[in-house]
Amino acid sequence: MNEAPSLGAEWLSALVGEAPVQSGYPASVRVVDGQLAGRAARFIAVVPDPHSRYPRARNGEVGLAEGWALARAVREAMAADDSADTRRVIVAVIDVPSQAYGRTEEAYGIHQALAAAAEAYARARQAGHPVIGLIVGRAMSGGFLAHGYQANRLLALSGESVQVHAMGKQAAARITQRSVEGVEALARTITPMAYDIDSYASLGLLHRRLDVAAEDTSQVAVVREALVAAVADIGGRTDLADRFDDQGRPASMAVRRRLREQWAG
Amino acid sequence: MNTAELLARESFVELPARARVECLLDAGTMRELVGPFERQTSPWLPKQDIVTQADDGVIIARGTIDGVDVVVAAIEPAFQGGSMGEVGGAKIAGALELAAEDAAAGKPVVPVLLLETGGVRLQEANCGLAAIAEIHAAIVALRALVPVIGVITGPVGCFGGMSIAAGLCSHLIVTREARLGLNGPQVIEQEAGVEEFDSRDRPMIWSLLGGAQRAATGLADERTDDDRARIRARIAAAVAAGPTRLARTADVAAWDRLLEAIDPAERAEAGVVREVFARHLGGRHE
Question: What does each C-alpha distance from A241 to A55, A150, A152, B138 come to in angstroms?
Fold first, then answer.
């Protein structure tokens, strides 16, 4: 296959081996049904498609086609397990540079496409599918909100290719009227502004950071083992409590505590 | 509106967030939670020499609208562009989570979200993004139990991750002054170039992202005029309705057909967009 290099595509292949890519999806959304410790699992990745009909979504961005395809892939998995005792695991393999920026995208409601994807993941989690977000590259902004941020557990690999942020460095610099160096300098002291995965982990949002370099797919056994452990850790939980109970965001905890105290009046 | 109506009208858009909440709730029922005197301010802005605000730009209040228990979350457009930081984000997410707990326990509290936001506050990037994901989760959980009402009136509009939150609401009310889009016009221009999107071309922007267009395509449920009494009446009607299936996120097959009808090589124009929506999703063709 002739394709642009993509950590998402490489890790998806490593994780699912010979299992076939499901047909009926855009080339930028790869859906593969496999297994995790004997339990059925659906793996989903957004990958670059240099031939996409949408010029603004050729580098792995989540655009109109991707948002609706993600929604369909997750809803299909839910429907398939509607009456099953054990619901399949859903793994979002995450390497998304951003959402798509374009006139066509806005005109036809890209926000609604991303809402459909986020909702599908949230519903799957609430219905009892263990949902895991595996960050193998960039987890950026709207792309991440649509693909992975609704997971019960977030796992991440290591190295400079693994980044989480609300906006790419160049764009963030332009919008906040700073230089890229200025953004980098701030990121060193303001934890939520940093791009690196260790800063992100310190906010308590990550279930585990694995000592596996994003480029080293030979470590796939370690990653699979971590996914299996995460499924066990999720157990029957269907909420995001894993992220709230951590000490990484003290202001968020304080606000939630005060709200609860005052809620009933 | 005719001239007499225009003269009699009281603008909602011009009100700051707390006054918006006051004018929506039944008189004497407003009770603000984690109000400004608690001084829950952003821990991140002072480190960047940016002045904080005592409520971090988000007002949370319980009360009733025509006797129905509600919790209103209002974003203050005048503070940091209505951006979502850690504290403001946690206020909205936390309030929605408590409403969901109550609704599940048989004590329905209907959330009303006054969305006036540019999205994530970049000075608190990952904390804002995380809070928005939590807001999405709570809205989806709530919607099975109660309607979740979204309101976008302007002047800021609703962008970024919060536009996704708007897309998750059971009932979305907009004014003509409102805009709804994922990426702000400036960001699109910076990322894709001025030929793709001219952020100074206001008529083009409103023709594609404005409240009238969003209501005509069905991406918003209704458009109302910028008038306090009218907006309140529309919200009161939506609050009193039961939970519904949200066609906007559920009808994936219809959207797939709509996507097939789009030619991304063709420059999107408002009229064509309305026709496509009307044909595939039965959008209200005004």
Answer: 39, 12, 8, 12
Mean pLDDT value of segment B210-221: 97
Query: How many residue contacts between A and B have a Cβ separation below 8 Å?
Result: 251
pLDDT tens per residue across span B78-108: 999 999 999 999 999 999 999 999 999 999 9
- b/e A133-153 (16+ beta carbons within 10 angstroms → b): bbbbbbbbbbbbbbbbbbbbb
Residues in chain B within 8 Å Cβ distance of A103: 188, 192, 196-197, 208, 267-268
- For residue B284, the model assigns a pLDDT of 52
Give the minimum alpha-carbon distance from B111 to chain A in angstroms, rounded to a whole number.
Answer: 13
According to DSSP, the residues that pair with A36 across neighbouring strands are: A39
Asked if residue A1 has pLDDT above 50, the reply is: no
Q: Is A176's CB within 8 Å of B186's CB?
A: no
Residues 6+ apart with CB under 8 A from B112: B24, B65, B70, B71, B72, B73, B149, B151, B235, B239
Smallest CA-to-CA distance from A76 within A125, A42, A105, A100 is with A42
For residue A101, list its beta bridge partners: none
Closest C-alpha among A21, A28, A23 to residue A65: A28
The tokens for A260 are 């609860």
What is the rounded (10 degree) CA torsion for B276, B202, B266, B174? Answer: -20
Give A77-125 pLDDT, tens digit per residue.
999 999 999 999 999 999 999 999 999 999 999 999 999 999 999 999 9
Q: Find the largest Cα–Cα distance for chain B.
A: 55
Give just the sign of the alpha carbon dihedral B252, B256, B258, B264: positive
**Angle at the Cα of A152 from the Cα atoms of A149 and A157, rounded to 5 degrees:** 65
* Residue A109 to residue B48, Cβ atoms within 8 A: no
Task: Tally Cβ neighbours within 10 Å of residue B36.
Answer: 14
- Alpha carbons within 13 angstroms on the beta-carbon side of residue B160 total 27
Picking from A72, A145, A202, A206 by the largest number of B CB atoms within 10 A of its own CB, the best residue to mutate is A145
Amino acid at B101: E
Contacts B142 to A, Cβ<8 Å = none
